[in-house]
Amino acid sequence: MFKKILIANRGEIALRIIRTCKEMNIKTVAVYSTADADSLHVRFADEAVCIGPAPSHESYLKMANIIAAAEITNADAIHPGYGFLSENAKFSKICQEHDIKFIGASEEMIEKMGDKATAKSTMKAAGVPTVPGSEGIIASFEDAEKLANDMGYPVMLKATAGGGGKGMRAVWEADDLLKAWESARQEAKAAFGNDGMYMEKLIEEPRHIEIQIIGDRNGKACHLSERDCSVQRRHQKLTEETPSPFMTEELREAMGNAAVKAAEYIGYEGAGTVEFLVDKHKNFYFMEMNTRIQVEHPITEEVVNYDLIREQITAAAGIAISGKNYFPKLHSIECRINAEDPFNDFRPSPGKITNLHTPGGHGVRIDTHVYSGYKIPPNYDSMIAKLITTAQTREEAISKMRRALDEFIIEGIKTTIPFHRQLMDNPDYISGNYTTKFMEDFEIKDIE
Predict the structure, then answer these.
(1) Pair 285, 258: CB distance under 8 Å
(2) DSSP 3-state of 25
(3) Residue 142: strand, helix, or coil
């Protein structure tokens, strides 16, 4: 087992990893930018190293500084959390070259699954259902036009190096294809330095359902059932739940088997998710694979009593998994609490938290790094907490979430708590009748 793990991240996920490491008697090293000097992950780690100024590219994305921090503290492993360098093939390779275990996917695995066009062809070869579309990157607009005509509209253009909704365009009619093609390429080039595009048939009334998997270095994998991530705004998840209210036992078994097949086909090691689009007829199609821990991992932990960070660490240390698949015994919902103003187009709201009261009680979990007096920097993602409620049934979990949101007080900044509170009273959400288009029709009532 590792003696000391450096956490190459910040905020609640860094604190989450530190907690499990302490329970495993593993020493921890926090890295931080000058903007995060007062963050809790710095305070609770055994050691802490400043790796640069506030901008991410000068600190949390600065590979040389992170490796140097690991070497001077004698860390024998690095946990990247999510975001930042968690799915960076070059960083994974550099860790290996410096004899530091990267607790995540290998360089080869990230390259194979990180590029969406390559991932799709790999999954087709593995026998996992994929969305009809282009074979790899589209060479020209003329090829895109022909493919769209052959498949039939609507279609979806996607950047092969995409993420966070960048470089994606839905095209409903042939007359709109050229404009969408040009704008998607331009956006992808600016965001990723890569304007490669591919095309898929647009799945109507889709749900975004992912399967959590764990694999070991022996090539064995298992799944921990699904999470429904369909409530999104601009392709960013707002809330997640497990089990999905859309799921049947037959569909869960089929999707779980497909995810395990995918993981074992590529010899995947560690925690990851195989993400699917599911249409209204319950046909499912591979969308992408995330080769890291997910923001929403706590709801899976709650319903199957399984510490995913611990399993990441033990898998990276070479310990074999049981191979047993897990199925939800309870119902769990996560609301992402962001420092944003939901009454003003979710505009970011950095600043000082002047007062904080967090909810508690049976079945309530909060993953957060903030406290009263903490100053939220404007340099990073706006998520400041995850509120998770777990109960015997979905109805009870929603009721518990309403109560917990009412108790959650954050003053000094704007947060998305009022949005989530309204969501929990929405008839379509309550009935489980939602898709990835849900937020297009959701109206936030201004109660201020």
Answers:
(1) no
(2) coil
(3) helix
Q: Which helix (H) or strand (E) holds 301?
A: helix 297-304
Domain extents in the chain:
4-103, 132-201, 207-440
Which is the CATH superfamily of the domain at 207-440? ATP-grasp fold, B domain (3.30.470.20)
Full-model pTM = 0.89
Q: Which are the contacts of 142, defined by CB distance < 8 A and separation ≥ 6?
A: none
Any idea how long the chain is? 448
Strands (E), 234-353: 236-242, 270-278, 284-290, 331-338, 340-341, 347-348, 351-352
Instruction: Please give the helix or strand (H or E) that residue 215 lies within, else none.
Output: strand 207-215
The residue with tokens 């707002």 is 238
Asked whether the domain spanning 132-201 has the same topology as the one spanning 4-103, the reply is no
As a whole number of angstroms, the distance between CA 180 and CA 101 comes to 42
- Alpha-carbon gap, residue 390 to 302, rounded angstroms: 7
Whole-number pLDDT of residue 446: 82
Q: What's the pLDDT tens digit per position in 156-199?
A: 999 988 777 789 999 999 999 999 999 999 999 988 889 999 99
* C-beta atoms surrounding 90 within 10 Å: 12
For 47, other C-beta atoms within 10 Å of its C-beta total 17
* Cβ pair 112, 241 in contact under 8 A: no
Domain 132-201, second-level architecture? 2-Layer Sandwich (3.30)
Q: Would you tell me the crossing angle of helices 177-192 and 141-151 to the nearest 10 degrees?
A: 120
Q: Is 292 a catalytic residue?
A: yes
Please name the residue that has the structure tokens 């009261």. 357
Look at the block and give the residue holding tokens 């907690």: 19
Given 10, 169, 252, 292, which residue is catalytic? Answer: 292
| Domain 4-103 is found in CATH 3.40.50.20 | yes
User: What is the bridge-based pairing of β-strands 197-201 and 207-215?
Assistant: unpaired
